[in-house]
Design brief:
Layout: E1 2-9, H1 15-30, E2 35-42, E3 49-56, H2 59-66, H3 69-81, E4 87-91
Antiparallel strand pairs: 1-3, 1-4, 2-3
Length: 98
């Protein structure tokens, strides 16, 4: 299982636009082959700072999604609203308490 974390900072005037875009597209992301879910997190102090947290069966599934036309169209719209570059990490859970 791959956990993908993407950190993005948005121009203040586009925060609500981005939330709407995510809401419109989250089901299609979640239903992508190999995706086990996606969450949108917003920083509690800097409301222009967001993180997407998605769960993928494999790195191949993640990469297939990242190379899709749907991702390209979504990312183009997202980047136009951002303030700076995104940062992304692909991680494995090393340890956890439940």
């Amino acid at each position: 299982m791959i956990n993908r974390i993407v950190c993005m900072k948005f121009q203040p005037q586009h925060v609500e636009d981005f939330k709407q875009l995510f809401d419109e597209r989250k089901e299609k992301i979640k239903n992508s082959p190999g995706c086990h879910g996606v969450k949108l997190l917003q920083d509690i102090h800097d409301t222009t700072l967001f993180f997407t947290y998605s769960f993928w069966e494999s790195e191949d599934d993640l990469n297939n999604y990242r190379h899709s036309a749907f991702f390209a169209a979504t990312w183009k719209k997202t980047k136009a609203m951002m303030d700076g570059k995104a940062k992304a990490w692909s991680t494995n859970i090393e340890n956890e308490a439940s």
